[in-house]
Structure prediction request, 331 residues.
Amino acid sequence: MSDSFKAILIEKTEAGQRAAVVDQPDTGLPAGDVTVRIRHSTVNYKDALALTGRSPVVRKFPMVPGIDFVGQVESSGHADYQPGDAVILNGWGVGESHWGGLAQRARVNGDWLVRLPPTLSARHSMALGTAGYTAMLCVMALQRLGVKPGQGEIAVSGAAGGVGSVAIMLLARLGYQVTAITGRTAEAAYLRRLGATDIVDRSTLAAPGRPLAKERWAGVVDTVGSHVLANLCASTRYGGVVAACGLAAGMDLPTTVAPFILRGVTLAGVDSVMCPRDRRIEAWTRLASEIDGDLLDLVTGPVIGLAGAIELAPKLLAGEVRGRLVVDVDQ
Prediction:
């Protein structure tokens, strides 16, 4: 095992945050009972915020960003893992308060790890990453709360992004009728290829709306928040379910109680960071069996290196990146 590794390191300077690829000694690794040789990571919306410093995602400095990784266990003091085991990590504060996955090596709490399903490749696991895992948690929430195929349309906002793209794929494969809501209507052909049957311009939902609108959605997966989420709640059908997992348009929710007390709509929050282990395992097991690998390749851009993650972060925040970014940490 080498005594150093390549990593993106975010440091705080007088001018603000600075992210750069560095050679980091192993002695800098944080505490943990499992050391992992990382193979792939990815760039999520939260990672882009950390890399650019546009939001106070990073809780302490210096920080290795990256809320995801996949790799092999190098050493373990945890009873569940042995050297050579293939593992995934999503969330748990890595990349925010604990060094994360945009590096060649990580040391973490073994309780945060999940075994890589044997039918899922390492690259595909990071083509999914936290975005795909969150999409599956949203689908699981809709199903758990009784939304079935045939009950009506399912709206997916932020449809051309990572969570939205995977949510469309999963829902369509499970037999749901999916409407893609996007600010990039030029991506209509791509979204229909993933399984969307209709496309709605996000601008039609981005302004303040009525407390109640015409009933349309049997279920919703929302990654956007703010007025878009409020308008989706207002147009959800009686007894429908809205799974909310994102805030790309803001943290505010300018709505009323009307959809919830007059139509029995359920607003289900979906958290991927502190999600219980049993639900994580279920989500990854289902992703391994229910995802279409060819379609997943369609939503995944060229594999990039650590420097490419820094370069593309601003474009991801600007909505100029379709689908998923996989990072080969050795590239």
